[in-house]
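Table 4 source record.
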Amino acid sequence: MNIILPIVFATIAAIGNAMFALGQKQSSGIENGLLFVAGSALVAFILAITTSPLFGAFSLESMVRDNWKSLLFSGAGLFLTYVGFNLLYAKFGASQYVLYATISIITTTVFVGIILLKEPVNIYHVSAILLAMASVILFSVGQSKI
């Protein structure tokens, strides 16, 4: 079961990302893409607040009081993610996701996971990271041939 759950959770996130990508691409005609981002963030906020009691104790006040620095930092990161997605998908299309995904491997897996949090890594992880980097190169070469 420990092998299956991460795949299930990643699949949930991937489905959500695909929905987000499609919504972003469909909004490409909107004059102010940041306004669309704000609207989609509002919908996400409402859904998260509504379902959060299903995941544990609901104490908004203590959560903010005890985690305000992390909340601000994470919120700024989510904002950058939303803006980057909006610009990437609206201007270049969902097929460009491979660039985001691979760069995320480097920024999140390598920098945050391995360097900052000292999470364990083995030869299989290193190989996967190197292959992911190769995918950016191959994708970029492929794009230049279109």
